[in-house]
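Hello,

Our lab assistant flagged a job as stuck in the queue for most of the afternoon. It eventually completed. Since we weren't sure the result was trustworthy after the delay, we are filing this so someone can double-check. Below is the sequence as submitted and the structure that was eventually returned. Let us know if re-running is recommended.
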Amino acid sequence: MNFEQIYEEFFKVIYTYITMRVRDDAAAQDIAASMWQKVLRKLNTFNKDKGTVRQWLFGIARNEVNMHHRLYYVRKVFSLTGFEDAVPADQKTADQQLAEEEEKKLLLSAMGTLGGRERDILSLKFYSGLNNREIAGLLNITETNAGTIINRSIDKLRVLLEAK
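-- returned structure --
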């Protein structure tokens, strides 16, 4: 199958799946676009011995949705810059601005408790947009190790922030 055939056959069911998972049409469109770009780039890596095209596509879609949720959570809860906010600072109430500044201070304090390597990897992941494979290649570690460090670091931050 070529890309056009795959796209025509599976777009609707994949898009429906993504929409149901994120429940936001704009986010679903972004995720679907990213997912289909990945499919186009990696179509030559598809191995029918490992499963069907349908399984492969849903695996990619699932990973993209999961990444969206992780990034949304991290950017919402662990925002360092505040640039991710939809409401411009001059339209926020003083209470909102004060609460956001307090959250940033807590996060920076919590980040300070992490080791330099952990801070670096989290920054590469969530603020530079690198995936685990890219981080692993950059730092000369395994992809699994990069993912483990990311998960453990987020868990540490979550515990610290929930305690405050």
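-- support follow-up --
The delay was a queue issue, not a problem with the job. The result is valid. The radius of gyration is 19 Å. The domain at 101-163 is CATH 1.10.10.10 (Arc Repressor Mutant, subunit A).
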